[in-house]
Amino acid sequence: MSQPTPIVQPLLLQFQQLFFLSKLVGVLPQDLAKFRFKNVLEKSRNGMIYMLGMLMLYIVLYNLLIYSFGEEDRSLKATQSTLTFVIGLFLTYIGLIMMVTDQVTALFNQGRLGDLYERIRVVDERLYREQCLVDNSTIAKRIRIMLLMTFVFELFILLSTYVKLVDYTQLLSLLWIVSAIPTFINTLDKIWFAVSLYALKERFEAINATLEDLVTEHEKFLTWLNGDDHNNSIEDHAAEESASQPPQYDSNLEYLYKELGGIDVGSLRGSGSKGKNKVAPIAHSMNSFGESIQSPRKLQQSNATPMINMAHESELSNATKVEEKLNNLCQVHDEICEIGKAMNGLWSYPILSLMAYGFLIFTAQLYFLYCATRAQSIPSLFRSAKSPFITVVVLIYTSGKCIYLIYLSWKTSLASKRTGISLHKCGVVADDNLLYEIVNHLSLKLLNHSVDFSACGFFTLDMETLYGVSGGITSYLIILIQFNLAAQQAKDAINSFNSFNDTAGLVGAATEFGNESSSLFDLVTTTMMTPLN
Amino acid sequence: MRDYRIDQVLHFSLRCYQLMGMHGLPLPCDAHPRRKARLLHVWTGCLLMGFSGVAYMCLTSDDEFLYKGDDFSCFNDAMKFGFAEMAILGIYWETLSSQRAYLGRFWQLYEALAATQTATTTPSGLTLRQQLVQHWRFLAIFYGTFLLELALLCVYVALQEGSRHLVLFWITFQPFILVVHLRNTQFVLHMDLLRQKLLQLECELILLVEYSSFANSSASFFGFNEYLRRRVREMQMIYARIHELCTCYRRGFSYSMLTVLLMIYIRITVDCYFFLYTKLSNITNLDYYLLLPAVLHIPAFLYTCQSFMQIVPRIAYRLHNIATSCSPVSLQIQNFSLQILHEQMRIDCMGIVILDNHLLTQIAYAVCTYMIFTVQLMPKLNGAYL
């Protein structure tokens, strides 16, 4: 705001709380003082060092957490099924990997992130010049709501798990707090992305609204134009109907004209001079000619009328004037699309890691929930799965993050595509050859400039991905549960087999097998043992 | 929202939907539209509460609403109720909230389009016979599936010797099925209306193509090009309206399309599995024949959607068949063509999946895959491990 020419409020003004929080926990390295006074994101060496320090601290703490809680796992290994153990091992570090990806990407992008918001500011100025206002005030509110929800979810998951499922008599159990860090950092980073994306969507919507306004304005203008000689038009209409040959087409089109805002009624009435109607004596084509012919003269006439008493004004009636506006709007649209692509580029790896995390954790959490209900032991890091209620909250939190990003990307993409529709509405309602040429040109341009968000090109961020992912989760879950069943059956079969035969040697051999059970071995035993069972 | 006219067949069907709480708008002939709308909302709220209460009771009660024999069956029964409740929530929530605006706009636009397009016939509208012919697809699906459902239910009641579980389960679950299926026919009705509009546009375009080729080959007239241009522009406007109609439909029904399809799909998957399971273990249970209407409902809806979406490329084809050498006309045609590219008629439930026959293959494929997974699970379901 202290800039010399504050034409528009910079978007970053709304990000203040989020920036301070991100700075504190080490999500962004940019300079704090510059942001506070000038609302810009600039590179900062100190910030970088601070952030690297935080990153190191988190990694050390997290490893400590894994080590101290892994103690139980090692003692439980014998009773755990192999599958559960391997999945637990595989997913131990996924949270950490996600957090490191976020922070390292933020470090690399620290210069470019500032440019992005600068570009958005320039876009805002251009939009302002086209009398297309964007309201940023809702963004601060959105950020606040998102932060609040993050805190609520994180705290709930952390505290309820700590109180219910962690043995808090030991001092070391306080390390459990560290388990919330990766998801929290990740969520903060994603709030930046989500809110910036939302801002882009608002800009697209502002462009669309401006175009729609042009249309409604012109429609009003036309009805006003035809309004004052409405009475005449009805009389003439009646006269014409009696004169012209095929009543069906005539009445049809008349109605259409009225329905579509009475666009041509004036000209229709004017050309009611009958002689003209009877052009060609060819029977077939008479049908098509049932309605009157519009002469170009009439168009000019309708354009001339408003000059006399200007009650309504429509920009669309002046093609040369509107050309500039449409061109500018389309250029801004292109620029926003480019910004969207750049933004997607900055966050592509974090989003990929988030989606991978979401998919794996969702599946694993459900699988562990199943294991817990079967009274099997599960990896200690995933102890929240022991309580169905906490599991539900975890799942809502994780999937909510992923789905919201996907949903927002999809909506933004849709909003950018809507511009073409609005543009065509402008063209059709104005009905001017010059304008048609402009519209056609710009329409092609818009078709070539669509913005689609993707995660490193692995998959697009739209709702169709959701369909695939949910299918994947269900299939994997069924497969995992089946393997788990098979393993459990094998174990029970061995146990019952042992109780049948009291021979000491057999017991020893079987338990040994049982201890180092590999799932393949289990499957083999199941098939062998089932008849005995 | 107040001012639309509809023919008798539509009138009757919409009354049916009003009665089931799925159409929350007053019909045009209603005397007190505001009061009627409020009444409909209260009624919808009551239905929602009733269904939710039943679902809650079934899920929590100790009685045999769900099969208590083994955990896996119980889980599946609970899943059926869960998804049915989701569908019900989606349906009635839409009636209470978003439908007002979108569906109101839908019928307004529909009326406007009908006025522009069918003013050719007698002013009093179509005869009943014509109306029946016009809506035969919807009527066939609506009455066909409904009667089939009733007939199967009667046969089932007559033949099946009831256990307490079966009686309790079917008494509570059948109303859910009925509502969901009726909603599906409501989708079909709206889709079919959209399809008719688009088909009409195509017919008009064909007519225009014939005129243009005639004018081009035999004789042209003064002002013909101007006429052609204007007609193309009118069609552009009609197309834009149909697109808006389609958008209204999509927005008005987005959640319930998803939940209804999901519920029917889950039911088919689960029941197919148990059909095989009961056959394997020689339990005489006839209730799987009740699945037949559900199996018919998904293709009926998807096929209607597909036949609607398939018209758009044909319209583009017809449009470019218009023969002209006049540059304003070709400019107009270009404009229309670009407009079609921008305004895609795409029916999808919240963007998740396009509703066409491809989805049908996907569903069949998914059901088969899950069937193989779960059939493999079958011998292990002795109750000891699950």
Task: Outline the structure in words.
- The complex is a heterodimer of chains A (533) and B (386).
- Chain A has 533 residues and is mainly alpha-helical.
- In chain A, 74% of the residues lie in helices and 1% in strands.
- Chain A has one domain.
- Chain A has a two-stranded antiparallel sheet with strand order 1-2.
- In chain A, strand 1 and strand 2 form a beta hairpin.
- In chain A, 36% of the residues are buried.
- The C terminus of chain A is likely disordered.
- Chain B has 386 residues and is an all-alpha fold.
- Chain B has one domain.
- Chain B is 76% helix and 0% strand.
- Chain B has 12 helices and no strands.
- In chain B, helix 10 packs antiparallel against helix 11.
- Chains A and B meet through helix 10, helix 12, helix 16, helix 17 and helix 18 of A and helix 4, helix 7, helix 8, helix 11 and helix 12 of B.
- Chain A: Keywords: Cell membrane, Membrane, Receptor, Transducer, Transmembrane, Transmembrane helix.
- Oligomer state equals heterodimer
**Count of DSSP-assigned helices of chain B:** 12
Question: Using only CA atoms, what is the Rg of chain B?
Answer: 25 Å
| Sheet with the most strands: spatial strand order of chain A | 1-2
Summarize the biggest pleated sheet of chain A: 2 strands, antiparallel
Total strands of chain B: the figure is 0
